[in-house]
Design brief:
Blueprint (H helix, E strand, L loop, with lengths): L1 H10 L6 H11 L6 H11 L1 H21 L3 E4 L2 E4 L7 H22 L16 H10 L16 E5 L14 E5 H9 L4 H9 L16 E4 L3 E5 L9 E5 L11 H21 L3 E7 L15 E7 L23
Helix pairs in contact: 2-3
The chain binds guanosine-5'-monophosphate and zinc ion (ZN).
The site of zinc ion has 6 residues, from loops.
């Protein structure tokens, strides 16, 4: 008792519910449990999985049973329409019948019935997987959870069957939950998302930019030199899709812009060792100074002495408010 109690009370690091769930499963089962039993108990705490099956219940099986007059739904509860007419023996017999139907189906179809829920069916080469996970710093690029807490999967941003490439720029690391949520809507919503990503506006200078001005691009963003640079090397990272501000871009677009910013920071400092700092900025809305209504990230190289007093950096958007130290 002592060691276990001490471990649970004092030593067990609670980075997730996993440890106490597993210990509890072992305790409840007389000290020994099959790995499947442990996994099932962990699963019972995974709200994302429960939510997934609530959607299945409501949209698929619940709908069919209601349509066929077998069940009805009141608020969040389902009920069997003829249940009150059943005797205890009949209930028993019907449970047995359901179990045999389930067993028969599993026998016939085996594991295949869950194949659509299995991840990583399309193997991504190990070396690419490694690079994507390293670039994502071991975190889901949508929700930010670390790979120690949830398994990460390497996923195509724009799916292959929608024209997405096998290039590094079109991969992202997603945790099981984010990827599952994305896959659920595959073939329906994603087509919509793809259409959204290709949205351009006729009268927008960035949507209609001369291709010759684009110095680099990836799946969802591109880079141009600012036409009126604040300092030498001033670049703009721009999502390909027309969207007005930072607050309207998707995480995938932000990732694309972020990667380009990293890459071009490297290039700039390699080409000009005089660069000793950067300002990154988004102007959001007319009152904050935005003049081109297509989201863009300014990457502005800074050099020692380029202004008399650089203190405050972006704080200098309000004259006189930069240096709060004096
Ligand atoms: P913002 O909307 O953040 O105030 O700035 C728009 C930025 O786009 C400016 O830094 C401007 O120099 C830059 N820019 C780059 N190319 C063009 C162009 O072709 N026309 C205009 N008006 N601005 C451009
Ligand atoms: Zn645009």
């Amino acid at each position: 008792m002592g060691t276990l109690k001490d471990y649970i009370e004092n030593k067990m690091s609670m980075s997730h519910v996993y440890q106490p769930v597993m210990i509890k499963t072992l305790l409840v089962n007389g000290g020994v449990a099959h790995k499947k039993a442990i996994a099932k108990d962990i699963l019972s705490y995974d709200i994302s999985q429960v939510e997934y099956y609530i959607r299945i219940t409501n949209n698929m099986v619940g709908r069919v049973l209601r349509k066929n007059g077998i069940a009805k739904k009141e608020k969040d509860n389902y009920s069997l329409i003829s249940f009150k007419d059943l005797s205890a023996e009949e209930v028993e017999a019907l449970i047995g019948l359901c179990e045999s139907k389930i067993a028969e189906y599993i026998d016939k179809r085996g594991d295949k019935i869950w194949e659509h829920r299995r991840r990583n069916r399309k193997a991504v080469p190990g070396s690419i997987r490694y690079q994507v996970l390293k670039r994502a710093k071991g975190r889901c690029e949508l929700c930010g959870i670390s790979m120690e807490e949830k398994a990460l999967e390497v996923d195509h941003i724009v799916p292959k069957n929608h024209g997405g490439e096998d290039s590094l720029d079109n991969y992202q690391a997603l945790c099981f939950t984010c990827n599952a949520n994305k896959r659920d809507t595959d073939d329906t919503d994603f087509r919509k998302m793809n259409a959204v990503y290709s949205h351009r506006e006729q009268n927008c200078i960035f949507c209609t930019i001369n291709k010759g001005r684009i110095i680099d691009s990836n799946e969802l963003a591109f880079v141009i030199r600012d036409k009126y640079p604040v300092t030498e090397g001033h670049l703009l990272m721009i999502p390909k899709r027309h969207c007005k501000t930072y607050f309207e871009i998707s995480q995938a677009e932000l990732n694309s812009m972020h990667r380009l910013a990293h890459k071009h920071r490297e290039i700039l400092i390699t080409e000009d060792p005089g660069i000793s700092g950067f300002n990154i900025g988004f102007n959001i809305g007319k009152d904050a100074g935005q003049t081109v209504n297509h989201c863009h990230m300014h990457l502005i190289p800074r050099r020692k002495g380029d202004v008399n007093n650089p203190v405050g950096g972006v704080r200098n958007i309000i004259p006189g408010k930069g240096d709060y130290t004096t």
